[in-house]
Amino acid sequence: MEPRRLAVVSNRLPVVLTRENGSWSISPGSGGLVTALGPVLRDRGGLWIGWMGNTVEALHHSPLPADLLNRGAAETGYTLKPVSLTDEDLKKFYYGFSNEILWPLFHDLPTRCNFDPGYWKTYREVNGKYAQAVVEHTDEEDYVWIHDYQLIMVGRALKQLGVSRHTGFFLHIPFPPLDVFLKLPWRFEILDGLMEYDLVGFQTARDRRNFLGCVKALKPGTRITGRGSVSRLVTPDRELLVGAFPISIDFMEFSHMASSAAVSWQAQMIRHKLPNRQLILGVDRLDYTKGIPNKLLALRNALERYPELRRRITLIQVLVPSRKTIKEYALLKQEIERLVGEINGEYTEVGWTPITYIFRSLDRSQLAAYYRACDMALVTPLKDGMNLVAKEYCASSTTEDGVLILSEFAGAAVQLHHGALMVNPYDVEGVANAIHEGYRMDLRERKIRMKALRRSIRKHDVFGWVNSFLRAGIAKDLRSFPHLEFFVPAPQEAS
Ligand code: ADQ
Q: How far is the CA of 390 from the centre of ligand 1 (A)?
């Protein structure tokens, strides 16, 4: 059966709500997923289901105007359907099960997990709320594409509601190997949950292999067939497809933005303020998986062992605030700031500070200006599903002379290892050596490497990613959803 509409389900709706002087406003969110899916949702009558970012209790104190989502839909051009969450839901489903269990475990960091049994019940219940929204707002002709580790059990909840939908699920974070996955007290339930979808997509072949390893060990009655990037799993009661679909970025958007006059000017200003040196950029969400302390230690090691780098390099470390209410994240921030302070204290000279530290969200053009201004990018996660920053940096290197230093443990390494300087983020001296090598790399080699990186990212952009997933899921690509020329987003209910 040909699906009629695409329905995307993610933890958050792709909109930003802001409250100023007592009145609410709504604007479309940004990011690769929104960019890639926006047009098809807009032109072909699709919808997006997710949480708006305010709990029921918060909205009780500060209600949203009844027409806010309609205004949002008018801006995005597609229908937005909200899921309501309470404070308790947020605490146990989002901060608890998702971010204290699945996030660290799937990033191979089981010692950081808090396997609180109370979290599981809420996780399932909240997944049930998303499933309920799917039931209300879609029908059997739609293709329902569910995203990420917060929503693994939505497929199972749909089944429990007795509802049949054509579904795909994409995991944005890594999938761990069997010995790590086995530690999860709810390992059978989570595996069963994933096997409830018609298509399950992972970032890399390694993640898919890890998943299949868990299926073989824990679901012995399952037959796995097929070669290439998509396998077929046959269980006694159903069949599903499992594939690797490495996510990417809108290459052209970054490339154009980076070469625009406004961004070029901003980039020049950044360079002007930090003259006569090579600029190294770090851009990371505040998260222990991103390896930020390791990176700072590597910089210190480089300054110690290679004195010629002193006064000649500056690290601009942009840290994006994230998961503010989790204590571990607050501690990590303190640790990073202590290290930045120590290194600056040890090495600063008149007219030169080794680290410029920025702790806030930047808008996309500011981010592109930093990408464009910096001679090197230092992307050293301990583990990462993909890492889009690495790809965005290359897309923005329009002069094709940037150097990418990349962790072996980022999903992006599979695609970018030929052009990047590859490092083990745990190896402080190795990363320091790569900084030194990048600093000394001549223009010819920089260009050869960066051209290759850009070529590869241009070829495999986010539109290709969406199309490869949809083709595996429904044998269609973005263009083949029926075009609704005069589509008007359906009215939203107030939430
Ligand atoms: P993240 O862990 O958030 O994503 P990443 O892939 O690097 O990691 O994406 C970060 C995004 O945030 C980038 O698009 C970047 O432009 C944006 N960003 C970074 N700094 C910013 C700033 N200062 N202000 C505003 N925006 C900023 C998860 C997984 C990854 C996977 C992605 C996509 O953890 O492994 O690559 O999803 O699937």
A: 10
Question: What is each CA distance from 7 to 49, 50, 143, 176, 401, in whole angstroms?
Answer: 7, 11, 6, 28, 41
Q: Which of 103, 281, 382, 389 to mutate to test the pocket of ligand 1 (most atoms within 8 A of CB)?
A: 389
pLDDT-based confidence at residue 313 (cuts at 50, 70, 90):
very high
pLDDT score at 328: 87
Structure tokens at 467: 């199309």
End-to-end CA distance of the chain: 33
Please report the domains of the chain, with CATH numbers, ordered by start residue.
5-247+461-480 (3.40.50.2000), 252-459 (3.40.50.2000)
- Rounded to the nearest whole angstrom, what is the distance from the C-alpha of residue 285 to the centroid of ligand 1? 7
pLDDT tens per residue across span 403-432 = 999 999 999 999 999 999 999 999 999 999
Spatial distance between the Cα atoms of 281 and 296, rounded to a whole number of angstroms: 12
* Ligand 1 pocket at CB < 6 A: 31, 172-173, 247, 283, 285, 318, 320, 361-362, 367, 384-389, 392
Which residues form the catalytic set? 172, 384
